[in-house]
Structure formats: structure tokens, C-alpha cells
Design brief:
Blueprint: H1 6-17, E1 25-31, H2 37-50, E2 54-59, H3 70-77, H4 81-91, H5 98-114, E3 118-123, H6 130-141, E4 148-154, H7 162-165, E5 173-179, H8 184-195, H9 197-211, H10 215-223, H11 239-250, H12 253-266, H13 272-279, H14 283-295, H15 307-316, H16 319-335, H17 340-347, H18 358-373, H19 377-390, H20 394-411, H21 416-428, H22 434-446, H23 450-466, H24 470-486, H25 495-501, H26 514-527, H27 533-545, H28 553-565, H29 569-582, H30 589-605, H31 609-622, H32 633-646, H33 649-656, H34 668-683, H35 687-703, H36 714-724, H37 728-740, H38 748-756, H39 761-778, H40 781-797, H41 801-818, H42 821-826, H43 831-834, H44 847-851, H45 855-865, H46 870-877, H47 881-895, H48 910-914
Parallel strand pairs: 1-4, 1-5, 2-3, 3-4
Helix pairs in contact: 1-2, 3-6, 4-5, 5-6, 8-9, 8-10, 10-11, 11-15, 12-13, 12-14, 12-15, 16-17, 17-18, 18-19, 19-20, 20-21, 20-22, 21-22, 22-23, 22-24, 24-26, 26-27, 26-28, 27-28, 28-29, 28-30, 29-30, 30-31, 30-32, 31-32, 32-33, 32-34, 34-35, 34-36, 35-36, 36-37, 37-38, 38-39, 39-40, 40-41, ...
């Protein structure tokens, strides 16, 4: 399909078929590679043939330019098989048969011209061998002018045929048509056939920008199916586009290929002097190649229009040449004072690009520092890995390895262990700086190597006594807080250092590292029961001032954990969602993983079991259990506890088979794991094992002075276990002990529920009512369902079957909403046991009676079946209480019942769930 080429086609056809007699005619089509010259030649040729002319055609190739008569051989084949056979021996002799070939071609061409006009067409004539051109022009010049015309297509601006045309006694009439790239409207026209007019109009600007209007490249995108992407963004290119772009480059000859490769290697640094240096070509040649590649739609100045074209050219560069080009580019960029990151991208772009020279190592380290500051952790790690290979200084190599280990810990925690272990010896020997040693100690703690970490922290403390450093002092105090809140068993190992730090100096809130110190201060306040409203405000301030960066990750996670332990779940959830939305679509895998696990913990504490399991499982997909270090206890514990409450006991047991680091049990994370394992043991009837886990939690938390239900309500777990074992006295004592502790509002409802289980039914009802009030304030859906179920059972024991049934149905609905599948199964309605006997003569309402209910009556009745009061039904359906009463009266009459408790369970429908 030819677009925006109608005028050129008409002009060339008219020129070649009409006009002044006695003058030879040469039509020339010029344009960039891929501009549609061949398609135009074919269109003109078809029209000329339709007018009665004969056509001889040939396509020249740069790979055959050195072979004499390559083009002439194609033209002779068009004159018939006998001619080609008769001249084959002559052509095989090389240049020796030049005169004979000229005569042979002249004779055959004259024979063809004697029967009618002939059009000789040569595509890519700029690549034609000189011998063929000379023979063609000589034979043409010896024939009557009106008998033979010439039509050629060339890729350059110069007249490649001019030297040969000088052989003619009279200059021919010449018409040159130059093909410009397609306009945006032209691209839209190409797209409209496959995409529709409206879609084509949306895509055309982006496609024109990506191809420069090259018909070849636009067609390649169409073959790749890029038009199926209904977006105005950069079109998605595939294999066909890459092949087409690469073909465009190679059709510009060796010089064009060199220039394109240099621009690809330089990326955004494709400045003319650099391209000239990399190619070794003169400035005019480089400029000409850049202009030609720009006209062909591959480049836009000194940059690639489409990333796929750049990738294709880079893959096309031989490996050895790629390394040489990048090394040369890096050296030149460094000499010109280019930014470190720009130079480093060349040094890291190929394994052979970075020389083992001091300047290269310095550039790579500086680029790594800048990349880490800008949260480009992957580039920083790549720079340090290359620098480590290049340096010849062993001390420098150790320093680089320490920085790299820290980065790898952030990028892929599971891979950091061996690197940190290899650095422990040098750090112990004092070969690392105190700051690096301290960072290594934190990484070792996370990997479970507490003793080594404590030794390194003590070593840093000794170095500080000789050389005071305010920034290092802040970092040590932050680590102190980390130990106290997360690795409390390690605190004694550095007690001497802590005693020295107990002076008046404290990190400045606005100073370096001050935010992390404050975040751990919040965590300490939550775990040591020192939280108050001012602490809540400080948490809000700190999170509001934090940004989603690698540097801010630890302080955000720590502050959010503090809010969770302090039972500020709404606040924690709001901030968690805010940071997740800020990092949406960005390369912050660590954020999404950690915040997803934390989201699961929040959902678990709100009794939303399905949400909790889903959030944590997604986090564990992104970072498997072995990659969490000792921190795995928290997400795995959350998932085990959620699955156990849902009744998925096999799945929980499978999770508990995951190998755990032994030192995890000496950390705060281990408490989460022990408590969750205890809940699983209790749910599956292993009461002694459950009690051991709950009491182990209590022993640790008490010894660490973190005995807060915000970490783990171990007393309630133990109390439930004693109940299961039949020891109500011990269960009641633990429940009362939990209720008497200050600041335990989140567990007040569950504690009252457990205490109620040790009382007779009439007293149990009062305590369970208090429990439900507390649970409504706390927003714990799962515990609410359990309390409702217990209250229903208490009413049943007292003979109040109507109230019992309503409460059990409420409990069933609440349990279903939160994902407590096992609890739902235990609460399935049992009419034979729960329902009061019907009066004589009444039976199950028939289908016709139920079908007679209006939608409004059915909605009200369904909610009544679930145990809602008339006032609750009115609020849910946005109607008055009087309207509810009227609807129920009509329902009773239609289905022939007298009491609310006689409403059939079959009215339990999706209406009740959606109301």
C-alpha cells in the first residue's frame, strides 16, 4: 500500500511514457532506506507495462558491488534463458570479456527494443558494480533514444550514475523524485486498515515518533502486532521491528554500522566528538551517517528513536568489539569530565570494559555512592561488583566488599549471608572502618549470628573511645535500641558499651540517623508499655516526614510496627496503605514485601483471617521464607495463626515444617512464631504442647521486660488451653491477670470471653455482653464471632432458644465474613435441636407461600433470620422501624407462622449478605 506517494507515481509515469522524442530519459527515485523506493518502482513499472512496454529489472547489493557484471547478469536473465546461457562462460572469465559482454548485451537489448519500448529498472543503484553500469550506458546510448528508458532508485543524494552517463553523446532528460518520510497523517493512514480510524488517530503520533515516518519500520510494527496495544504510549516492538531496524543500519554500509554501534554504546551520551572518537571516522563522514540514519527513522539526531532498535544494534556488536568500544567510551567520558554515573555505565556494560586502573575504580565507587543515594540499589551493586574486580589494592577491595554486602542485603537478603561471613574475620582484625563494622554487625544479627555481631559492636565501642564521632555515636545508640527491642538476649553481651553510652548525649532529631533512632524509640515505647498520646503524635510526624526510599525503609517499617504493637491499628493501616500506594509501579520490592507482611499482621489483629493469609502469602512469594533471616518468625507466625483460625490445620502444619534459624527463638520474631505454633497445637488438640509454647512466650517476654499483649497475649493462649484441659480455676486466674494489666484494650474482649467460660450461664451472659462491647470497639471480627457463638450457647443452656438461634446466626454470619471456616461449620443451623416445636397443624412453608413474598419482604425476613433486631434491619435497609414491622407482619401471614423464631432458614439468602 502506497501512501503519500500518488504525486510521485503520476509524475514518473508521465515522464517515462510521454514527452519530447529523440531524448533519452532517466527517472531517479531517491530517499532514505525504508522510505518506500522499491514500492514506488514497482507501482511505476506496473503502469509502464500496462502501456505496452517491456521491463528489465535488477537489484544491486553492497555485497556484490565488487563482482563485475553482477547487475548486468540480472538484466540479461530478463532477456531470456538462451542469452544468459550464451554469456555465462564469458562472464566467468572476469574482466577479459568486457567488449564481448557489451556487444552481447547491446544486441539482446536492441532485439528487445525492436519490438517495442523497454524500461530498464535498477533498484539500489548506488551499490551497482561499475562494469555493469558502463555496459548498460553504452548499450543504451547506441539505441534509438525513444526505445529504452532508465529508472533507478538510490539511497544517497549524489548522482551515482553521473560518471557513466558522461559516456553518452547527449545528456539525457532526468527527473528526480525524492521520497520524504511519511507524515503523522500518513502513518495514521497505514494504521487505519488494521486498527480502525479512531484507534489509528490515537496511535499515529507515538508511532511516528518511534519510526520517524519510515514505512518500513511502521510495517514492521504492524507485523509485530503492536497496534493491538490500545495505548498512545511508545508502541511495543517485537522481532520484526528489530530486524527491520538492523537491516536499515546495515544498508548504510560499514561506516553507517560503525556510527550506529557507537551511538548505541554511548546511549544518551551520543555527542558528535565521542562518536567520532569511537568510530575513528572524520567529522563529515560521521555527520553524513547520522543524517542518513535519522532520515531512515532509526535515529533522532544522535539517539535511537526506539529502545528496541538500540537493543538490536547492541546485540549485533561482536563481543570483543563491544568491550573495546565501551572501554574507549569510558576513558573518553572520564577525560571530558562526564558525571561518574555516565562513565560507570560504560565500565559496567561489558565484563571486559573496565580497565584495572585506579581512575576506573574511583569512578565506579563514586557512581555507586550516588546511585545508592538516589535509591538505584541495583546500579550501585553493579558498580561495586565491577570495582571489586578492577582494584589491585587489597584494603580497598575489602572496603568495597563491605559496601557491596550491605547493598546485596537490601537487594536480595538471602544472598547476603556468605558475603557477610567472609567479612567477619577482616572486621575482627580491624581492617574495616567502624561504620562498616557496625553495618556488618546489623547484617549478622539479621542472619542469626548474634555472638559475632555483639563482638563487632564491642569493637566499634572501643574504637569510639579513641576517636569520638557524633555520627557514629548516633548509629551505635540506634543499634542499642535495635538490640533492646528485637535481639534482647544480645544486650548483655555489650553491657559495658551501653553503660558508657548512658551519658547525656542523645542524637539530634534532625541530625544524620536521628530518624532511625526515633523510630526504634517508638518501638521501645510500645513494647515496654510506655506509649501515650504524645508518642502517637510523634509516630504520625515521623511517618509523615518519611519518603519511600531505601534509606527510609527501616525507619518506616519500625515505626509501623510500633503502631501495631501499641494497638493503633487504624493508624498503622492508613500509613501502610499510603506507603504501598506511593511505591506502586516502582522498583521497591523490599517495601512491598515487608509492608505486605505487616498488612497481614494488621488484618490478623482485626480478625480478618482471609485478608491476613492472602497478604502474607503474597509477601512470601516475593521473598521466600529462607530469605527473611530471623525475621521470618513474624510473617510465618501470622500465616500459621490465620490458617489455624480458619481451620486449615494441614496447611498450618505444613508451614510449621519450614526450617527455622535456631537463633530466631531468642528474638522478638521468635515470640510471634511460638505463639502461632501454640494456637495451632491448641486447635488440633495437642494441649500439652500448646501450653508449653504459650508459657515459653511468657518466660521470654517477662525476662525481656516486654510483657505486653501487643506482642503476644500468651496468658490468653494458656488460659484457653487450661479450659480445654478442664482446669477452669487456672484459666480464670490467667484471664483476670490479663484484665488487670494496664493498657490492654485490644485483648479485653477475648479475656472477658475466656473468663465467662468459667462462670455459670446467667453470669456468663453478662460477661459476654461486656466482651462484645469491647470487641466492637477493638474491631476484631473473628473474636466477635467467637463471643457471639458463646453467648448463643449460654442462652440455649438457659432455655432461651429464640435468642440463642438469633445469636448463633449472627455468629455464623460474622465468622463467614472473616474467613473462619471451621467456626462456620460448628455453627450450622440445626432446626431439630434449636427450633421450638411448631404448633399442631403448622408445617414447613410451601414453595408457593415463599414465592408470594415481595423482594422487600424477603430482604427484611432474611435479615430477621440472621438475628438482626427491627432497628438494625431498618438501619441496614434505610427504612423506618414501622416499615420493618409491617413487612414482617405480612411475611408471617403469607407463610402462616406466628413468631419470629419460626422464620424458615431457607430465607437465608444472598440478600442478607449484601444488606
Amino acid at each position: 500500500m502506497l501512501l503519500e506517494r500518488d504525486a510521485e507515481t503520476e509524475e514518473l509515469t508521465r515522464f517515462l511514457t510521454t514527452g519530447e522524442r529523440g531524448r533519452r530519459r532517466v527517472g531517479r527515485v531517491a530517499g532514505a532506506v525504508g522510505s518506500g523506493k522499491t514500492a514506488l518502482l514497482q507501482s511505476v513499472t506496473e503502469r509502464v507495462v500496462a502501456g505496452g512496454a517491456r521491463v528489465l529489472s535488477a537489484v544491486a547489493s553492497p555485497y556484490e558491488q565488487a563482482y563485475p557484471y553482477a547487475v548486468l547478469e540480472q538484466l540479461l536473465q530478463g532477456l531470456g534463458p538462451d542469452t544468459a546461457a550464451s554469456r555465462a562462460p564469458v562472464l566467468s572469465e572476469g574482466g577479459c570479456g568486457h567488449d564481448f559482454v557489451s556487444c552481447e548485451f547491446h544486441d539482446r537489448l536492441a532485439e528487445a527494443a525492436s519490438t517495442g519500448p523497454v524500461l530498464v529498472v535498477v533498484d539500489d543503484a548506488q551499490f551497482a558494480d561499475p562494469e555493469s553500469l558502463l555496459c548498460l550506458v553504452r548499450a543504451w546510448g547506441a539505441l534509438p533514444a525513444e526505445r529504452v528508458s532508465l529508472l533507478v532508485a538510490t539511497g544517497g543524494r549524489d548522482g551515482e550514475l553521473t560518471p557513466s552517463l558522461r559516456e553518452l553523446p547527449q545528456p539525457p532528460l532526468t527527473l528526480e523524485v525524492r521520497l520524504a518520510p511519511l507524515s503523522v497523517a500518513g502513518v495514521e493512514g497505514l494504521l487505519s486498515d488494521t486498527s480502525g480510524a479512531a484507534h489509528a488517530a490515537r496511535l499515529a503520533p507515538a508511532w511516528h515518533a518511534a519510526t520517524g515516518g519510515s514505512p518500513l519500520l511502521v510495517h514492521a510494527l504492524l507485523e509485530d502486532g503492536a497496534a493491538r496495544t490500545r495505548s498512545a504510549a511508545v508502541p511495543k516492538a517485537g522481532e520484526m521491528f528489530q530486524q527491520a531496524a538492523l537491516a536499515c543500519v546495515h544498508r548504510h554500509g560499514a561506516e553507517g554500522v560503525l556510527v550506529a554501534r557507537a551511538v548505541a554504546v554511548l546511549g544518551g551520551a551520543g555527542r558528535l566528538p565521542l562518536v567520532r572518537t569511537l568510530t575513528g571516522l572524520t567529522e563529515p563522514v560521521v555527520e553524513r551517517c547520522l543524517a542518513a540514519l535519522t532520515e531512515a527513522g532509526v535515529l533522532d539526531g544522535a539517539a535511537f528513536r526506539h529502545e528496541a532498535a538500540l537493543s538490536a544494534v547492541l546485540r549485533d556488536v561482536p563481543a570483543r568489539q563491544a568491550g573495546r568500544l565501551r572501554a574507549l567510551a569510558a576513558r573518553e567520558l572520564h577525560r571530558c569530565g562526564a558525571p561518574a554515573a555516565e562513565t560507570a555505565r560504560q565500565l559496567t556494560g561489558h565484563e571486559d570494559a573496565a580497565p584495572r586502573e585506579a581512575w576506573a575504580v574511583a569512578v565506579l565507587r563514586e557512581a555507586a555512592r550516588q546511585a545508592a543515594h538516589e535509591d538505584d540499589t541495583a546500579l550501585a551493586a553493579q558498580c561495586l561488583q565491577t570495582a571489586e574486580r578492577c582494584t589491585a589494592d587489597e584494603q580497598e577491595r575489602l572496603t568495597i566488599k563491605a559496601d557491596l554486602a550491605q547493598l546485596i542485603w537490601r537487594l536480595k537478603p538471602s544472598a547476603s549471608g556468605p558475603r557477610m561471613q567472609s567479612l567477619t574475620g577482616p572486621a575482627m582484625a580491624g581492617l574495616l572502618s567502624p561504620a562498616q563494622t557496625l553495618r556488618l554487625a546489623v547484617g549478622l544479627l539479621w542472619n542469626g549470628r548474634t555472638d559475632d555481631a555483639a563482638a563487632l559492636i564491642r569493637q566499634v565501642g572501643e574504637a569510639m573511645s579513641d576517636r569520638p564521632d557524633p555520627l557514629l555515636d548516633t548509629q551505635v545508640r540506634t543499634v542499642q535500641m535495635m538490640l533492646a527491642t528485637t535481639y534482647p538476649d544480645a544486650v548483655d553481651a555489650i553491657r559495658e558499651l551501653l553503660d558508657r553510652l548512658d551519658g547525656p548525649a542523645r542524637p539530634s532529631p534532625g541530625g544524620p540517623g536521628g530518624e532511625s533512632y526515633r523510630a526504634f524509640g517508638l518501638l521501645r515505647a510500645a513494647l515496654y508499655e510506655e506509649w501515650d498520646e504524645s508518642t502517637t503524635e510523634e509516630a504520625d510526624w515521623l511517618l509523615g516526614a518519611s519518603r519511600p526510599t531505601d534509606q527510609g525503609f527501616d525507619q518506616v517499617r519500625t515505626a509501623l510496627l510500633a503502631l501495631v504493637y501499641a494497638d493503633r491499628l487504624k493508624q498503622a493501616s492508613r500509613w501502610c496503605d499510603r506507603f504501598l500506594s506511593r511505591t506502586e509501579g516502582q522498583d521497591f520490592a523490599g517495601w512491598h514485601t515487608a509492608l505486605g507482611a505487616l498488612r497481614g499482621q494488621i488484618s490478623l489483629r482485626r480478625g480478618r483471617l482471609g485478608e491476613a493469609a492472602e497478604s502474607v502469602e503474597r509477601a512470601l512469594e516475593h521473598l521466600p521464607a529462607h530469605g527473611w533471616g530471623v525475621a521470618v518468625g513474624m510473617p510465618l507466625g501470622t500465616l500459621v495463626q490465620a490458617r489455624s483460625a480458619m481451620g486449615h490445620h494441614d496447611r498450618a502444619a505444613e508451614l510449621l515444617e519450614t526450617p527455622m534459624p535456631a537463633t530466631m527463638f531468642d528474638t522478638r520474631y521468635g515470640v510471634h512464631y511460638l505463639y502461632a505454633r501454640g494456637r495451632h497445637q491448641l486447635a488440633t488438640g495437642r494441649h500439652d504442647a500448646a501450653l508449653a509454647d504459650f508459657l515459653a512466650c511468657g518466660e521470654r517476654m517477662t525476662a525481656w521486660r516486654m510483657d505486653t499483649a501487643g506482642l503476644a497475649p500468651w496468658r490468653l493462649g494458656a488460659a484457653e488451653t487450661w479450659l480445654a484441659l478442664g482446669d477452669e480455676t487456672r484459666a480464670a486466674a490467667l484471664a483476670r491477670e490479663q484484665l488487670e494489666r494496664p493498657g490492654q484494650r485490644a485483648v479485653r474482649g477475648p479475656a472477658l470471653r475466656i473468663l465467662a467460660a468459667t462462670r455459670p450461664p446467667w453470669e456468663r451472659i453478662r460477661l459476654l455482653g461486656q466482651a462484645l462491647t469491647a470487641l466492637r470497639k477493638a474491631g476484631d471480627t473473628y473474636e466477635t464471632a467467637r463471643a457471639q457463638a458463646d453467648l448463643g450457647r449460654a442462652h440455649r443452656e438457659l432455655g432461651d432458644l429464640t435468642q440463642a438461634r438469633q445469636l448463633v446466626r449472627k455468629a455464623w454470619r460474622t465468622a463467614e465474613a472473616c474467613g473462619a471456616e471451621e467456626l462456620c461449620r460448628t455453627l450450622q443451623p440445626e432446626p431439630s435441636r434449636d427450633a421450638a416445636p411448631r404448633e399442631a397443624g403448622t408445617g414447613r412453608p410451601d414453595a408457593a407461600a415463599l414465592a408470594s413474598l415481595t423482594d422487600a419482604e424477603r430482604r427484611v425476613a432474611a435479615l430477621a433470620v440472621y438475628g438482626h433486631t427491627n432497628r438494625e434491619i431498618a438501619a441496614k435497609l434505610f427504612i423506618t422501624v414501622s416499615t420493618v414491622e409491617q413487612h414482617l407482619t405480612r411475611v408471617y401471614r403469607k407463610i402462616n407462622i406466628s413468631h419470629r423464631q419460626d422464620l424458615p432458614v431457607s430465607l437465608d439468602s444472598d440478600v442478607a449478605h449484601s444488606a
